[in-house]
């Protein structure tokens, strides 16, 4: 019957105690003025009228408030707003018919002092219209405040998502421009130039593509799976050029062959930018990659998810963790949809599954 503060904020959009304290007397006074307009009544009759209006208004406010809470609990989605409002209007109209009919038919005729206070002189239709107006004012208060709170919440969530994306892109950029990555990449390039000049040119092009995509995707919440796979292909080329047969990448999916990248079955599949690259990078960073212990990373593309699995051979026990990068990806998925990234660790393997987001247009997910 009585809601906690958390429940009031959840279903009503705000803690409505002050709205009740201020709103009920205000609407009661308004109703009293309407009912006694044009009548000359003694102060005692005006007092009775005010008390009855206060009871009337409190009853309607409480019942409408209960209806608002019930309907928002059962129809919480934005696309259900129209249905919820229609049900609420029907509920309020039913309340007015039942309450006014009962009071005017059974209660007021038995209380003579109410007639002296102005009650019973107005028509039932007039009283019902006034009561319905009070109900509509109560509903308008709750719906407008709730709409504003939802709008403010969506704005804050969008700002939070933007900050999270910027943090993620900066983290990826820091990892790629750190001295170790640059040193290893340049060292690999120096070794490749005399042995295979065409491959050295390709290596340089792929290295520049890695940085170009970081800058290109920094303002986007989602990119197509095709774009993500192409970005990952450049990064994998750099790593396999460096580690050679010590690093083995296995792709699995529709029509995929080992060491080949499958084409996504659906073109409306989207993913958090550079999330696959970050997961593959973490696998290489935290595991031994050597001739004696080669690292195998399997990337499986399915209609709903992309799963990255590597054999577990950690450099140290402390590194078998879900680091900042994966926590960031998890948070970004929470902000863009209701499906989350999953991580499964077994004694022999480390598996990360990223859900694919289905949207009609990528433009809807590009932050300004």
Strand neighbour order, sheet with most strands: 2-4-5-7-6
Low-confidence stretches: 254-260, 361-368
CATH H-level superfamily title of the largest domain: Histidine kinase-like ATPase, C-terminal domain
Mean pLDDT: 79
Shape: rod-shaped
List the helices and strands in order.
HHHHHHHHEHEEHEEHEEE
Number of domains: 2
Share of β-strand residues: 5-15%
The count of DSSP E runs of length 2 or more, i.e. the number of strands, is 8
Span from first to last CA? 45 Å
Q: Which fold name corresponds to the CATH topology of the largest domain?
A: Heat Shock Protein 90
State the helix count.
Answer: 11
Portion of residues within helices: 55-70%
Give the CATH class of the largest domain. Alpha Beta
Q: How are the SSEs ordered, and which strands pair?
A:
Blueprint (H helix, E strand, L loop, with lengths): L4 H8 L4 H20 L6 H32 L6 H27 L4 H5 L7 H54 L1 H17 L1 H20 L6 E2 H19 L3 E6 L16 E3 L3 H12 L8 E7 L3 E7 L12 H13 L5 E4 L3 E7 L1 E2 L10
Parallel strand pairs: 2-4
Antiparallel strand pairs: 1-3, 3-8, 4-5, 5-7, 6-7
Helix pairs in contact: 2-3, 2-6, 3-4, 3-6, 4-6, 6-11, 7-8, 8-9, 9-10
Main attributes?
single chain; 368 residues; alpha+beta; Heat Shock Protein 90; 2 domains; five-stranded mixed sheet; three-stranded antiparallel sheet; 11 helices; 10% strand; rod-shaped; disordered C terminus; Histidine kinase; membrane; kinase
